[in-house]
Amino acid sequence: MKRAVMDESFDRAPGAGRTRNVLADPNNTAGSDTKGTLFNQREPLRQPRTSPPFGENNVSTADVMSSGSFKRQSKPQQSANANSTSASRGFNEVDSVVKSSKLSASAPEFVPSAVNPYEDPSFYDDDESYYGEPTLAETVADFLGHLSSSPGSFELDVEQITGMLNSWVTTEELLNELVELIYTQSTAIPNFAYTGARLCNYLSHHLHVSPPTGNFRQLLLKRCQTEFQQRDAAVGGDPETQKKFHSYVLFLGELYLNLEVKSVKGPPNRADILLIALKDLMNSLFSKPVDANLICAVKLLKLTGSILDDVWKERGKPHMEELIQRIETILLDATCSRDVRQMLLKLVELRSSDWGRVRATAAASNATPDNDPNYFMNEPTFYTEDGTPFTAADPDYAEKYQEILDRQDYFNDLDGENGDESELYDSEDEMEPEMEEAFESFCLETERKRQQ
User: Fold this and answer.
1) Which residues contact 140 (CB under 8 A, 6 or more apart)?
2) pTM here?
3) Crossing angle for the helix pair 172-188 and 136-149, nearest 10 degrees?
4) Each residue's pLDDT tens digit, 353-390
5) How many CA atoms lie within 13 A of 118 on its CB side?
6) Residue 99 backbone phi and psi in degrees, to 5
7) 260 pairs with which residues across the strands?
């Protein structure tokens, strides 16, 4: 019986028993079972976490359940009651705050101590004038950086750069600033000394401003002289001071090769003052023969050695011989590293080979073994009877060559070139009997196969 009652109250279908139908009156127990009531009666659903708490006027679920009924209050009525209650409370709180407040609408504006009360109106201006015009230093740094990264564009860009500087640099102060900027960048940026020297040469001829204190080239040489006067202290200074000094020395070498000074007559010449300065700088470097100074001296001589040697020879001054002697003395006495010693030896060898230069050869019509070292370069190589090679440059060339000619004539006589050719051909036409017989057999066999 109990099983039958349970089957009637229990539905196995999904969601069965979860209906929200109103329960029967609890006082009416006729025809019902206690266990059936347990299945029909459900606990209320959990209140959502985000729902506001019930107001005082709301009917609690517990009260509804205790009365045995799930009669609900209408939702619009609950919302209206809650809103009215909240609004009344809000107005009361605002009134209490206003009454107790000591603030005044006419009080001065409050500004924190760390904030500047003044605001530049241009800060909010979208006009490009807010950013201001670039300074000369920024402009020079920009185009020097461009030339450093793209040295191949020098010829294309230098004219435009010079035109811009002519419209900008119009006073002595700006010219001095320009000289200092270019000098600093040329000695600070690695591998920019050559491009910087070329730029200095171009500006020295095309920059229009020329104040009483001197033009661009004169102010540049004065700036270099300032550094030159500190050479004795720089060669014995700390590594950072030596590094800056060595960059200056190499820039001065590039400046000597590229800076042209116009002359009244003839083509432009190099600055003689730089020639004298380079000699003194090398003497200063060799006076303190540490590795860094010696490496700088080797680089400078590799860069300018051939030009300096030619100029000093033309003027009859043995300055290059004196420098080479100092290098040889350093090789014997100084305690330089093995690599630096090897560099110095290679430098002495380079100078002995005329700095690796190959002089122009004489014209073909005027070439002789005395004035053209490559006179015998294209001459053929011959071999004696025992296999010894010789050329036209050998002292015994005539005798050896005559022996070859005599031997050639001997073999020509054996070949019949100088004898009776008819006898040679007659002897070649004759065949031995066995060969003749074999040849005839071959011809007959060939003819028979062809007829088949």
Assistant:
1) 178, 181, 182, 185
2) 0.54
3) 30
4) 888 887 654 455 566 666 666 665 666 777 777 777 76
5) 2
6) -65, -35
7) 270
